[in-house]
Structures are given as structure tokens and as C-alpha cells.
Write a sequence for this structure.
């Protein structure tokens, strides 16, 4: 396995040096105050399906050698098929002016080359079919990779992620806070249907917004949710740069989740927080998630700066294994409702000619 990783790094190094392999390029999407969370991918009523949300903190508290490179891995749950996957890198650049190139491979397959172009670039965001980049005015970047679904192993083996971040000027920092892999998969042992809504952004929030600065709150809207026959609903929030003792809150449809200090850097210095909440009883057809560090709301001291990076709403519900004879209304049950429908239409006949109805 070590030899395989070394070969992969050598291959990525050759790509950087020669630029000879034609890969699609994704330029950075830059917005000075950062981006609001927005749903980029969703699915409904998927039988025998579930979601895996895996985060590896990879920050190093030391100067990084250039080019900066690292390897991490993810082992997925037992499954028959991956339906969708999105791979995220959360990277510190230093300032919004610095640029770099990012070369990433999953299990030896090279993903889109990402050129972070600093404040001058404004390219793909909010598109799950493309590799997107979200940058704010404070030197932080989130890369969201497409093209991962078909590369993942489901046989219990580790899925290897190799990353090289290079900048010929040596200015771009490149140290990475975390790598997160979100997958939607099918497993016959999962005995429910799945609805899911995946949101992403660089949702920068600041206690004292600069000029023009970042807001002190971020809102995610999840619309057109089917709130009927819900077994369980869970919302997962991914943050970076939370600090214990600096306050922040998260609300789901006006109800506060967790306490007054949700993000605390639980995975180490500059590390992420990944928090999951049961929101089964809070669901609305059009639901809203509010993140805030507004000191007039959360108390002092609030978080000086924090980012809401990824949001995931999972809803499990019953599904119909196979049609039931006599199920008139299609709810996978034969009960009095079906009998009432049948009685209300007793002796109706739509045959033409009508004389053929009761022969």
C-alpha cells in the first residue's frame, strides 16, 4: 500500500511538472463575504438507501513543506452500490490574493485539476455535476469534487485520497483543515427509503463584520420536503474553525439545536466540527436552518469567525416492497380506506358501449 501511494504521488508530481495530461479544470469561485449554504444535490424515496458522512481532520500545526502533500483514507459501510459521492477539501490559503494548483487522486484515479486563482476568479459554484470551489475574502477555500462516485471501493478496503497543493511562488499556505467524503449508497439490509438534501458553501460568519465583510449569520433553505410518513429526520452540520468558549448557535425552523456553543473545534486545532441532530419533530415542507454568531443573540463572547461548510438533511420513511392486491389508493396497505373507495364507486362501469357492462 505504501508503494502504491508513493507511485501515486510521483504520478501527480509528473502531472504538475509537465502539464501533459488533458484534464478538465475548475477555477475558484470567489466572493468576498463567502457563500451562503445552498442545496446542490437531492434524492427522494430511494429504497434501501442510506448516507455516509465521513470527515478526516488533517491540519498540521507547523509550517508545511512546499509543495504541500498528504494522504488520507476512508472505509465505506458495506453496500451494493454507490449512487452519489462528493469529496470536499477545506484549505487555508493565507490571503485571498494567493493562488495555487491542487492535484487530487482517489484510488489512483486523478480528479479534476483545480486552479485557485485568488480574488480574480469567479467560476463554478452550486453544481453537483462539476467540481466547484468556494472562496471568501479571508483566504479560506472549499473544493467540492465531482467524478468520485465510480472510483470508490465497497469491498471493505480503504479508499485512498492523495493531494498535492503547489504554488511556484511559495505564497499559498496549502495546509488543509479536513477532507470529507459524503456518499449515498444502497444496501438491501437498509429497510427504509431515503430522502436527502446536500448543501455546500463557504459560509463565513464573523462576530464583527468587516468592510464589506461577512455576515454574522447564514441561512439554508430546504424546500418542498415531503413531511408525511417520516420515520426519522437527521440534520448534519459541518463547521470549520470553531473555538470552545466562543458562542454560536444553530436553529432548525426556529428551534435551537444543541447548546450555546455548538462548534468547539472538537477534532483539534483549526479542526472541523461535525454535529448531527434529530429534527424529526421539527420538519416543515419548507424548512430553514439558521447559523449565527450574532453576539446580541448568542451572548458574549461569540465566535470571532467560523464557517458553515456542509449541511445534510436525511429523511427515512417506509417504502412499498411490492404492490398488494386490493390496494386501491396505492398506499401499500389494504384497509378501510380502500373499502370506502370501492364502495363509493360500486356498480360504476365505464365500458363502451354501456350495454356491455352487465352482460
Amino acid at each position: 500500500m505504501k508503494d502504491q501511494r508513493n507511485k501515486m504521488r510521483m504520478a501527480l508530481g509528473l502531472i504538475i511538472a509537465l502539464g501533459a495530461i488533458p484534464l478538465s479544470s475548475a477555477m475558484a469561485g470567489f466572493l468576498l463575504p463567502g457563500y451562503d449554504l445552498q442545496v446542490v444535490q437531492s434524492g427522494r424515496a430511494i429504497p434501501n438507501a442510506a448516507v455516509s458522512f465521513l470527515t478526516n481532520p488533517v491540519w498540521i500545526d507547523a509550517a508545511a513543506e512546499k509543495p504541500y502533500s498528504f494522504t488520507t483514507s476512508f472505509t465505506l459501510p458495506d453496500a451494493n452500490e454507490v449512487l452519489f459521492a462528493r469529496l470536499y477539501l477545506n484549505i487555508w490559503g493565507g490571503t485571498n490574493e494567493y493562488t495555487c494548483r491542487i492535484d487530487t487522486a482517489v484510488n489512483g484515479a486523478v480528479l479534476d485539476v483545480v486552479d485557485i486563482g485568488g480574488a480574480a476568479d469567479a467560476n463554478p459554484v452550486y453544481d453537483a455535476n462539476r467540481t466547484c470551489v468556494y472562496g471568501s475574502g479571508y483566504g479560506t477555500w472549499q473544493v467540492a469534487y465531482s467524478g468520485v462516485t465510480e472510483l470508490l471501493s465497497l469491498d471493505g478496503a480503504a479508499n485512498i485520497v492523495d493531494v498535492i497543493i503547489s504554488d511556484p511562488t511559495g505564497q499559498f499556505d496549502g495546509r488543509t483543515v479536513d477532507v470529507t467524503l459524503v456518499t449515498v449508497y444502497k444496501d438491501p439490509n437498509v429497510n427504509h427509503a431515503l430522502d436527502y438534501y446536500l448543501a455546500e458553501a463557504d459560509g463565513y460568519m464573523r462576530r464583527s463584520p468587516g468592510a464589506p465583510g461577512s455576515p454574522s449569520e447564514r441561512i439554508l433553505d430546504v424546500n418542498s420536503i415531503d413531511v408525511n410518513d417520516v420515520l426519522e429526520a437527521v440534520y448534519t452540520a459541518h463547521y470549520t474553525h470553531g473555538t470552545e468558549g466562543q458562542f454560536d448557535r444553530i436553529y432548525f425552523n426556529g428551534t435551537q439545536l444543541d447548546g450555546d456553543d455548538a462548534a468547539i473545534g472538537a477534532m483539534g486545532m483549526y479542526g472541523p466540527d461535525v454535529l448531527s441532530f434529530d429534527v424529526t419533530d421539527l420538519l416543515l415542507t419548507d424548512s430553514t436552518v439558521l447559523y449565527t454568531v450574532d453576539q446580541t443573540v448568542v451572548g458574549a463572547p461569540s465566535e470571532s469567525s467560523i464557517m458553515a461548510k456542509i449541511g445534510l438533511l436525511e429523511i427515512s420513511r417506509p417504502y412499498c416492497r411490492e404492490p398488494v392486491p386490493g390496494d386501491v389508493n396505492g398506499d401499500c396497505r389494504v384497509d378501510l380506506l380502500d373499502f370506502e373507495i370501492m364502495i363509493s364507486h360500486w356498480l360504476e362501469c365505464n365500458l363502451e358501449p354501456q350495454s356491455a357492462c352487465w352482460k
